[in-house]
Amino acid sequence: LHKLIAQSTKANTRRGSTRRIVSGVNTSIAAVPWQVSLREKTYPICGGSVITSVWLLSAAHCLLRSKANELSVRLGSSWKTHGGEMYDVKETYVHPKYVRNSKVNDVGLIELYSPLRFSARVLPIGIVAKETRLPANQAAIVSGWGKLREGGPSATFLQSSTIKTIAMKLCRHSGLDRNPIDPTSMFCAGSFSQPSPDACQGDSGGPIVSEGVIIGVVSWGLGCARGNFPGVYTRLSNPVI
């Protein structure tokens, strides 16, 4: 992934401020212009991020569920079902070391047939550098059109929320300890002790951004916004990625 970015054409990378995100707020696509809606036969299934004019980033588990010729993406719109522009997917690539059961290295790439037309509403986001340390309690923004609450309806308008990263020691002692958490390829964000804003079903594959770069991909969790169950994200600073 990092090699791809280094070899790609010199895209104008925007450093922004920045599973409806639970407890999120309505957000203009202009605030997160790298946000992508991944669709299977026009039905929204996951999120993603623009990283170059022809390459998008998402979660591996999102890309394994469909053939590339069944996928398309919507960009440049705050609305899930209309506006912006639609692009067909040429091919998808799942990380070669992705482990389906544990979601280790849960990341993949989407290649488009046609280059994107960049604008104030469609721009690439830079990726965190390899081996960058991710401290606990670092503010980050997660965005998407996933469910507004666990078991509830999905958002029709783009949502975002500010959450904080959680120390791996705390994450491993949370309710998530029933599922293995790999500290090399994953990190946690949200709240350890109480319900907090969180990604939810439908936000998978979307970005979590901090200090102007994408630091992770929405991967998995237990429920949505539950106390003691923070969200788990693919760690993009992992050298393997």
UniProtKB/TrEMBL annotation:
One of its GO terms (molecular function) is serine-type endopeptidase activity. The keyword Transferase does not apply. One of its GO terms (biological process) is proteolysis. It comes from the Eukaryota. PROSITE patterns: TRYPSIN_DOM (PS50240), TRYPSIN_HIS (PS00134), TRYPSIN_SER (PS00135). It is found in: Secreted. Its main location: secreted. Residues 21-241 form the Peptidase S1 domain. The keyword GTP-binding does not apply. Keywords: Disulfide bond, Hydrolase, Protease, Secreted, Serine protease, Signal, Zymogen. GO terms for cellular component: extracellular space. SUPFAM superfamilies: Trypsin-like serine proteases. Belongs to the peptidase S1 family. This is Seminal fluid protein HACP002. The lineage of its organism: Eukaryota, Metazoa, Ecdysozoa, Arthropoda, Hexapoda.
